[in-house]
Specification:
Blueprint lengths: L8 E15 L13 E17 L3 E2 L13 E5 L14 H6 L11 H8 L8 H5 L8 H4 L27 E10 L12 E12 L9 E12 L6 E3 L5
Parallel strand pairs: 1-8
Antiparallel strand pairs: 1-2, 2-5, 3-6, 4-6, 6-7
């Protein structure tokens, strides 16, 4: 949080978000319209990074504001001590291309399970379409591809903005299913993130064209009891 004078980013904020598994199978006469029931397992976790940029900065056409291969996340006491399941990894690249060698998104079934926690149909084509192009949502994401739940935020993962209204940027980084460690009041578990932001500087030194200015954002957020923003919270 706050301002770093050596970067063009301002008001940097990190939020850990948990989307619980909505239980729509009732044993009695309850109805989904009466209340939500949630399960304690298979929650989707993601990290939301937000910041503002100065008025002279804007995303450059055909160039990602945040290069996906620059995004690394992990958890542990310190960023240099992330091991095992908390190991620093390229979150968006692994999310885009599920593989058995990945830390979390090891196959498409895992990715589909993650997507089921959200109220929209998500596709690789939609998320990974290069800046400036328009994805073909109809062919890539047909209706009722898989069940979704409506109590969750309409969060798009690894989606770079095409423009920045009010110079405000929100970027969601997928962590996985049941990824976050148990919260601790001792602040001994933190989620760490490192990423690059690159933008056109309309007030640069180049006389005829805007310059590209880059900065690296490295930050940590502690995992504490009650420290997550929880969606689909109901009766367990």
């Amino acid at each position: 949080h706050g301002v770093n004078e050596s970067t063009f980013l301002r008001y940097i904020n990190l939020r850990l978000i948990e989307v619980l598994n909505e239980d729509v199978t009732y044993s009695d006469d309850e109805t989904a319209s009466a209340f939500s029931r949630t399960l304690r397992f298979e929650a989707a976790h993601y990290l939301q990074v937000s910041f503002t940029m100065g008025p002279q900065y804007r995303p450059k056409a055909e160039m990602d504001l945040i290069p996906l291969d620059s995004i690394r996340v992990g958890y542990g006491p310190f960023i240099t001590e992330t091991r095992g399941r908390g190991e620093l990894h390229h979150a968006c690249m692994q999310y885009a291309s599920p593989a058995s060698s990945n830390l979390n998104f090891k196959d498409q079934a895992y990715k589909d399970l993650f997507h089921r926690r959200f109220p929209h149909c998500v596709s690789d084509l939609e998320e990974m379409t290069p800046a400036g192009d328009v994805p073909n949502f109809a062919s890539a994401c047909p209706e009722n591809t898989f069940p979704v739940q409506n109590c969750a935020p309409d969060a798009r993962m690894c989606a770079n903005p095409q423009d920045t209204p009010d110079q405000f940027v929100v970027f969601n980084i997928p962590l996985g299913i049941d990824y976050l460690p148990a919260g601790s009041m001792f602040l001994d578990q933190k989620v760490h993130v490192s990423l690059v932001v690159q933008a056109e500087n309309l007030e640069g030194d180049a006389p005829d064209s805007a310059e590209i200015t880059k900065t690296t954002l490295t930050a940590s957020v502690p995992v504490i009891p009650g420290g997550q923003n929880i969606f689909c919270d109901g009766i367990i």
